[in-house]
Amino acid sequence: MTKIYTKSGDDGDTGLFDGSRIRKNDPRVEAYGTVDELNAQLGVLIAAIRARTSPPSAQAPITDWQKLADRATRIQHELFTLGAELATPGEKNRERMPRILPSHAETLEGWIDEATAAIKSLRAFVLPGGDPIAAQLHVCRTVCRRAERAIITADEAQAVSRDIVIYVNRLSDLLFTWARWANELAGVSDVEWRKPD
């Protein structure tokens, strides 16, 4: 039986993919750790969608909810790749790894445009909420924004691929749009911000 604990991090450091070790509070670790947190929040989202929808039959068309879950799952795989890229210092070490490419962000842009066409025009700022799945998408959006900030901080210490920065920026826009789309699918109104009395 392989043990899950190695005790190698008991002194507060962790290993990168090239075998080097850095402190667990290093900006690079903060960045890929926050990406991992986003991936976990997407897992909660997907579980909530799967709990709401039954598996489609061979004859039934795929529903928008299932499409949302499938696309969120694809993003999980891309975030795993992104995290691995952040955990691998040095361009030479990353040459043989899967990478986040401009085409990944372009796919997200297409999904944003598709969801935007299916919802009402934005008339006001919206608060996180509405349907539980929409609310979870807002949680994912805020974690994504935090991941973006952590990636920018890591970039100041050691260059991060511009494709990663663009991808995460586009992803937060997608998650916001999907939150509004989820409310539309659920027949629930967005929670519009009102100026306090």
Which key phrases capture this entry?
single chain, 197 residues, mainly alpha, Hypothetical Protein Ta1238, Chain: A, two-stranded antiparallel ribbon, 4 strands
Write structural notes for this entry.
The chain has a single domain, classed as Up-down Bundle (Hypothetical Protein Ta1238, Chain: A). The radius of gyration is 19 Å and the shape is globular. The protein is built from six helices and four strands, in the order ββααααβααβ. The chain has a two-stranded antiparallel sheet. Helix 1 (27-52) runs antiparallel to helix 5 and helix 5 (132-157) runs antiparallel to helix 6 (162-186). The chain is mostly helical. It starts with 12 loop residues before the first strand and ends in a 5-residue tail after the last strand. A hairpin with a 5-residue loop joins strand 1 and strand 2 (21-23). It is 61% helix and 5% strand. It has helices spanning 27-52, 64-86, 91-94, 102-117, 132-157, 162-186, and strands at residues 13-15, 21-23, 126-127, 191-192.
